[in-house]
Design brief:
26kDa_periplasmic_antigen, 10 strands, Alpha-Beta Plaits, alpha+beta, SIMPL/DUF541, 3 helices, about 210 residues, SIMPL domain-containing protein
Length: about 210
Amino acid sequence: MADAPVVAVRGEAYREVAPELARFTVTAVARDRDRETTLTRLAERAAAVRALLDAAGPTVERRETGQVRVWPVTKRSGERVVAYQGSVSTTVTVTDFTALGELMLRLADQEQVEVAGPVWSLRPDSPAHREARHAAIADALVRAREYAEALGARVTALRELADTGLTAAPPMLAKAAFARSGDSAPELELDPAPQPVQAAVEARFTISEPVLD
């Protein structure tokens, strides 16, 4: 009925779920007074990084070369070049967290290589997003029924439903711990950061005639 009473509510859901992806950046750098030497060293170090990532096999789900930079270093007082510097950055995506720490350490053990991360996240199509949306709708229905019950009425139909947004956590860095015992290889323990997922909807329900005694 067009003139039936309406109750408007907001449904919300909040979940913390385990991350599905870990991303880190590995950067090979080189510097020398001679330009050709800098370029040669940079290419060699970038190739060593690629070889390690190739050897990691299915542990690495995806890798992307981000930025390649080569620039002259000049004196502050003028334009005289005193050296050449270069860097190659690669973003690596991993889903096997059990092998993540070992892979990062192997890369960090290379000459003139910097490793930064990991950043934990969910996949864009993660089931966690769908579950949060469903939970937000269920919350809206519960609230509508509670309001209707307080009026001595009942929910009869859904009139309108609007998605007010779904958000995930901002990128979070890992908690890392290094451990070395005697001559054994170093170990890197990582604690994956739980990923908050939120969803909210606004809904309008028609209700039966309230009992206002």
